[in-house]
Amino acid sequence: MKNNKEKKPVKFKFTVDLLFKLLAFLILIAYIVILAIGKKIFDPMSMFWRSFYFFGKAGEFNPFIRIASYIVFILSASWVVRFLLKQLARPLKKGKAIVDILCSLIKYAAIIVLVFLILKTVGVDTTAILAGIGILGLIVGLGAQPLIADIIAGLFIVFEKVFDVGDIIVVDGFRGTVKEIGIRTTQIVDIGGNIKIINNSDLKTVINMTNQLSLAICDLSIEYGESLERVEAILKENLPAVKEAIPDIIDGPFYRGVSELADSAVVIRFVANCEEGARYQVERDMNRQFKLIFDKNNINIPFPQIVLNQPTEFKDATKAQKKEAQKFVEEQKELSKNLADGELNDI
User: What is the pTM of this model?
Assistant: First the structure.
């Protein structure tokens, strides 16, 4: 019962929104038709036409008709320009943030122009208002420094291409995809659908995970009694199959060698280059593929246990396997040497 009550408002809101858009569209069509054929239907000197067609010569007019004409024309023009900008930006991978800010500026500019036209229509002296707004703007500006800082920071983010809509970034430990870059705030949505809204001026330390390929890491544990060289030789044979099984891997996987001598296991590491959005899935897929390889070749993954009997006898590597293992280690070092820069020295 509780769930049904929650769904009804959503459905009603959607219906009202749809009806509003349909009504606005019909008004726009009617307005365009009147503009196109109005001179043939109405007398150019009539009160209605002089009031409706504000592009003509000045004269007496009905302020209510003139205001309605202003509202339809300004808001429609604003909507059309914003719609075209969004359509042009749709196929672009980058630049959506600039379009979002431009659309916001166009919307606010249209509202400001509309307000001034309405005030002028009803006989208000807009020159005095402009002078008053200049003084008021100076006073408000002194008290609205955070708002101005947000706007300026937003412009720098867009034009310096710090990040764009669709990029995966990390801000103060929050990792998510940039949903929207506005004039004042930026919206980031994480993998769980949670949206974090941050003032642009607060985005001081940002890690952009999308600019370059990310590194998927897979650590594998083998028993101390297992021959490391035998395992390396087997993995060398199966490494191409791992890449074929995981299409999200762009480069790799590469063998990085022994990363740790743990309490009950020898830990070896594999890495692969991929897009940041696919990194966690690639790591899961690598874990699965290597587990299948271990099972197929009787390579045991250790776990903490108390041994109450004789230890297992492990197979020794053959001479051929030892040779292949050494060759494999050297080849992988050479192939993945470019990954060992900066922070990756610890990988």
Answer: 0.52
